Amino acid sequence: MLLALLVCPLVALVSSLQVGVLKVCPHRCSCHDFSHFVDCKGRALSLVPGRIPYGTWMLDLRSNNLTEIPAASFSGLWSLRIILLSCNQLELLHVGAFEGLGFLERLDLNRNRLKHLPEDFSNGLQHLTELKLSHNRIEYLHYNSMRYLEKLEKLDLSGNQIGSMEKGVFRGLTKLRNLLLKDNSLTVIENGFFFMLQSLEALHLERNNISSIQLEAFASLRSLSLLGLNGNRLSHLTFKIFLNIQTQGTHLQLADNQWICDCDLQRVFGKVLSVRHLHVDDYSNITCSDPGSLAGSLLVAVDSQLCMAETATVLVITATVLVTVIAAVVMAERNRKKNGNQERSESDSPFDSQEK
């Protein structure tokens, strides 16, 4: 009985405290107790609000006027799984901005004004599975900025101004399955950019300024099923670039480039199309940019003609060589016969003089 008298008031006290916590809500935000969702979307906030309930699971801060995320802005909110920060005016993420969010799974920073990520950006975000950074102003990816995102499965960096990356910048993302780098300013895809991404299934590089791809650039991508390269500045390719992709099956998208339609290109595509695990999804839409006489023509419509001139040239050279060889043989035979006749006539001369 005594124990019951002690326990019951304690339970009542804890319950009252829990109710108090749930009723705490940031100014101008809406809190949904049962779903643990705090809705601060479109409230003209210029600062990250305080008094966020400790049990919050999802925090929506989209479409506000935030310009920075100070250090430890979400300190103590260990229950947070989703933070939505898209469509703000964020220019700066301070060191330790996301400190203490060890269980965060999804972070949306789309459509802000970020120019770079701090070196410690990934510190403490080891459970993050989805990171959205599209349509910012990022120009460069630092070697350590994504080092600890070991559980990340989707990374969206599309619509930035990325012109270069340090080799190995994605080295810690061993579980990454989807990488979006389309609509950036990349010009060269170097060996080592995608090192260690053995789980990567989709690589989107559409609409960059890519004109060159190094031979081993995709060699480590053993799970790649989709490679988007359409809308770049590729004019020629080396077959080995794609031959090095050792997967069960990879779909390639290569239209809307600046293809120079010649015999070399025809041979490369002929080889690619003959490889069982490679599939060029948009081959029927690939058009020629050069030479001028073929500009705008579909490659599939002219590919059988591209090696005809070269074949004709080879045939002419072969015929010329053959005629030259035959002529040389004929001349050699004539000279041999002529020399043989001269030798016989010289050998007959002494006998003629003796008979006289």
UniProtKB/TrEMBL annotation:
PROSITE patterns found in the cross-reference section: LRR (PS51450)
Compositionally biased residues, Basic and acidic residues: 340-356
UniProt key word Cytoplasm: no
Source domain of life: Eukaryota
TM region(s), chain numbering: 312-332
Region spans: Disordered: 336-356
GO CC annotations, alphabetized: extracellular matrix; extracellular space
UniProt entry keywords in alphabetical sequence: Glycoprotein, Leucine-rich repeat, Membrane, Repeat, Signal, Transmembrane, Transmembrane helix
SUPFAM superfamilies per UniProt: L domain-like
Pfam families xrefs: LRR_8
LRRNT domain segment(s): 24-58
Span of the signal peptide: 1-16
Gene3D superfamilies, A to Z: Ribonuclease Inhibitor
Metal-binding found in the keyword field: no
PANTHER family per the UniProt record, alphabetical: LEUCINE RICH REPEAT CONTAINING 38, SLIT RELATED LEUCINE-RICH REPEAT NEURONAL PROTEIN
Protein name as it appears in the record: Si:ch211-237i5.4
Source organism: Callorhinchus milii (Ghost shark)
